[in-house]
Amino acid sequence: MDVKIVSQPISSTGANDAFGHHLRSALVSGKYSTCLISVAYVLAGGVALLARDFKAFKQNGGTISVVAGIGNGLTSVQGIEQLLLAGVTVHGFQAANILYHPKFYLLRGETGDWLSVGSSNLTPSGLFRNLEANVILTRAKGDATVSAFDDCQKWIKFLLAKPDLTTLCDSTALKRLLRDERLEDERVKRKARRKSSAKVSPTTGGNTPVAIGRVAIPGLPIPALAEGIYTSLSSALNKAKKKGRERLIEAELKLVARGSQFFAMTMSAFDCSHKTGVPGTPEIAIPESVARFFPPIGENGRKYPDVYFPVRINLSNGASEIGEYRLWQRPPGSKVGHADWRINIGHLTIDETSDGGHDLILFQRTIEDNPPYEVWIIKPGTSRYSELLTQCTQQVSASGAAGVKRYGIFG
Fold first, then answer.
1. 203 occurs within a structural domain
2. The 320-329 sheet, strands edge to edge
3. pLDDT at residue number 338
4. In whole angstroms, what is the distance from residue 317 CA to residue 217 CA?
C-alpha cells in the first residue's frame, strides 16, 4: 500500500500542490468503478470544479455517492442541485446535537482502491486553496491491507441505516430542505456578502494592527457545471429574444437576480489591445442587464457613478492575484445602450489576453471566498473555450472599434 501526504496549497518542498488535482486524476484514471465521498460542506463552486470529472467517471460506468452535512449554515441547495445534475446520489446527514464533519474520498475498482482522509470539503477553497492536509492511500489488487478502505464504506453504510439522521437529497426534497433551513441559498449569501464587505484588521491588546504574513494562492481550474442547467437557461433567453429586446433584458435580469454563478463574454481585438505600456484604458463594455451581476454603483464623489470591487484573477501561469475592478456608468446620451456600462479590468487581466482578441473573459460569483468574484481569461483553441462559447448565446454590438461580442449568463 502506498501512502502519500498532500499539503495544500504548498507542499513541504515549497511547490504548489492541491488535493483537487489528485482527486481529479483518480476520477478520470479509469481504474475505479465506485466513488463514495463524505464531507461536511458542499458548495456549487466546488462541484463545478469537478463536474467534468464526475461526468467522465459516470460515462465509464461508475457510480458516485456523496454524504454531506446539512443544517450547518454552509452546504447549499445549489451545491446539492449540481451534484444531482452530475448524476450523483446524495444523502444529507444532520444530528440535533453534533456536527457532521468527516472528509474522506473513497474510490474502488477491480484493480485496487484509492482513499483520501483529511480536511478538504467539496468547496473551491477546500479542494484547491485553503491550507489543507490529506493522507492518500492507494492499494493494488492482491494487497492484503484493506481494512481502512472497508471500514470507511461500512461506516457510511451504518450511518445511512439511521433514517432519523440521514435524508435522501433528491430533486423533490430540495425545496423542502431549503424551506426548513437545512440547506442554504447561495443567492442570499452572495447578497449578504456584497452588503458586508468591511475588512477588519486583527489587533493586539491595544489598537496596534498585528502584522500577519500571506501565503501565495494558486489559481483555480476553469469550472464546469453539470450538463442540464445550461440548456434550460439558453432556451429561456432565446425564447425571450424572439419577443424583442425589452423581453430579452427582462429575462437576463431574472437570471442575474436568481443568483446565476457565471457571466462570460468574448473580447474584441480592441478590448485586448490596451496592455501595459499601450495608450488607452484597459476596460470592457458590458450589456446593461449584466451590470447587476456586479456590486451596485453609487455617487462616490467621482465624475461618474461607479463602484470598485475586489476580484481574484486566475493567471495562465497557475498563480492567482487579487485585483480591483471598477464598474462605472457612462453619462446619458451614449449611442449604444450596452456601452453605457464599462468595467476597468486593469492591466494584469488585459495582459493575459491574446493580441488579436476573441478570448473569453469568465466571471464567477462566489459566497465562500473574499474577494467575491473569480476571473479567468480563456483563449481560443483551449479545451474549455468551445464549451463555454456555446453558452454565450446572446450578442451585443459595441460602438466604435469594440465590435460585436457574444455573452452569456448561466449556472
1. no
2. 283-285, 341-344, 320-329, 306-314, 373-378, 360-365, 262-266, 404-410, 394-397
3. 43
4. 12
User: Which amino acid, residue 258?
Assistant: R
Q: What are phi and psi of 212, to 5 degrees?
A: -120, 130
Nearest-angstrom CA–CA distance, 64 and 47 = 13
Q: Give the orientation angle of helix 44-59 with respect to helix 19-27, to 10 degrees.
A: 20
Mean pLDDT value across residues 36-46? 96
Greater confidence (334 vs 353) lies with 353
Q: How does the average pLDDT of the chain come out, rounded?
A: 85
Overall number of domains in the chain: 2
pLDDT tens-digit map of 111-160: 999 999 999 999 999 999 999 999 999 999 888 777 889 999 999 999 99
> How sure is the predictor about 228, in pLDDT bands with cuts at 50, 70 and 90?
very low
Q: In the numeric block, which cell numbers belong to residue 313?
A: 484573477
End-to-end CA distance of the chain: 40
| Measured distance CA(213)–CA(133) in Å, rounded | 20
**Range 15-24 average pLDDT:** 94
Residue 263: φ, ψ to 5°: -135, 125
Instruction: Report the alpha-carbon distance of residue 226 to residue 18 in Å, rounded.
Output: 22
> Residues 245-268: pLDDT tens digits?
555 556 555 555 556 789 999 999
Look up the domain containing 144 and give its range.
2-188
What DSSP character marks residue 209? B
CB 38, CB 103: distance < 8 Å? yes
What DSSP designation does 226 have?
Answer: P
Distance CA 16, CA 7 (A): 9
Choice between 139 and 398, residue whose per-residue pLDDT is larger: 139
233 and 177 belong to one structural domain = no
Q: Say if residue 386 is exposed, middle or buried (CB neighbours under 10 Å; 0-12, 13-18, 19+).
A: exposed
Same domain, 164 and 85: yes
Is 220 a domain residue?
no
Q: Please list the helix, strand and coil fractions of the chain in percent, rounded to the nearest 5, in that order.
A: 30, 30, 40
pTM for the predicted model, two decimal places:
0.82
Distance CA(313)–CA(65), nearest Å, equals 33
